[in-house]
Specification:
Helices cover 41% and strands 4% of the residues. By secondary structure, it is mostly helical. Helix 6 (165-181) packs across helix 9 and helix 8 (245-262) packs across helix 9.
């Protein structure tokens, strides 16, 4: 047999293989430093000295040729594992059902699947996962803006300037916080709050009640309406009229805002207006505010003009 690369025969091939498998001899003279070859990650395929066609690495043959040529005995079928047994590999084995992790998301998804399978609405109104339950739906004549307290909503709208509602809401929160952290007011016996109000020591515990009592206590009960030319000779006839709750509060807050604008600023920053308004509320509760004088003036005028209710111009208009 001759080699295609070296036509000198098998002896040259064996000598070439033996030379390749032996480490190279060190040179006598080194002109430059020796460069070591990189270690091969894959072992050399022709590790056996021979002329066989296969290139797989094999163990060296044992001493006895019978043991090397005979294949290893196969184990009996009873000892084979199910993965190695060809008969067992053809049989279908169903997978066990997947167990979901016991967490909230999987439980919610399974509950939605059960609702959908039973024909129910999976997005129904339920209280699962809610801390305080679902809010009640709005009535027929209610609006979404009515979810706040009526006093807070009305005063916030009166505090608003140039359409900046968020700024007015921030001022309202600062006002309520000031009333909550301020000491209890000292109620004046000459200008008391509305009858049935709690003790003054409990007012800071409920700043919303504190604000409502102060505004309602200083709000006027009547207003003076002038009827032009009804008194004769072109003179105006003053007639007192009762007022609704929202109108009374609106007049009271307007008076308080006038007093706040005339008051001198004691600080700086965007919270100074809220602090001045809260201080005026405390002054109203203690009876020190000038708003009480305006209320007394309106009530005195109403008391003086209450005889005009029997005037013929008023009774004639009421008869219509």
């Amino acid at each position: 047999m001759s080699c295609k690369l070296i036509p000198r025969g098998a002896a040259s091939v064996l000598r070439n293989l033996s030379i390749r498998t032996r480490p190279p001899a060190a040179p006598a003279l080194r002109s430059r430093p020796e460069q070591r070859p990189l270690r091969q990650a894959v072992p050399f395929l022709i590790a056996r000295r021979g002329l066989a066609d296969d290139t797989t690495s094999r163990l060296p043959p044992s001493e006895s040729p019978d043991q090397s040529s005979a294949p290893p005995p196969s184990p009996p079928p009873s000892e084979l594992s199910p993965s190695e047994d060809p008969a067992a590999a053809t049989e279908y084995v169903s997978k066990p059902p997947e167990a979901f992790a016991p967490n909230f998301l999987n439980a919610e998804a399974l509950a939605a699947l059960q609702k959908a399978a039973s024909g129910q609405d999976q997005y129904g109104d339920g209280d699962d996962g809610l801390l305080f339950g679902m809010p009640e739906p709005l009535g027929k004549n209610e609006k979404l803006q009515d979810r706040q307290h009526p006093v807070v909503d009305q005063i916030t709208k009166l505090l608003m300037k140039d359409g900046k509602l968020s700024k007015a809401q921030r001022n309202m929160s600062l006002i309520l916080n000031y009333l909550r952290t301020n000491p209890a007011p000292k109620i004046s016996p000459l200008r008391p709050l509305l009858p049935g109000s709690p003790p003054p020591t409990q007012l800071p515990l409920n700043p919303l009640l504190y604000l409502t009592l102060a505004v309602d206590s200083v709000a006027p009960l009547i207003r003076i309406r002038g009827m032009k030319g009804a008194a004769g000779g072109g003179r105006t006839l003053d007639v007192p009229e009762p007022m609704a709750v929202r109108a009374r509060r609106r007049v009271a807050v307007t008076w308080i805002l006038d007093a706040v604008r005339r008051k001198r600023s004691a600080g700086s920053g965007r919270g100074q207006f809220a602090a001045r308004f809260a201080q005026e509320i405390v002054a109203v509760a203690e009876g020190r505010s000038a708003v009480w004088d305006r209320r007394m003036t309106v009530h005195r005028s109403g008391t003086a003009s209450r005889a005009n209710l029997s005037h013929h111009a008023v009774t004639k208009r009421k008869g219509r």
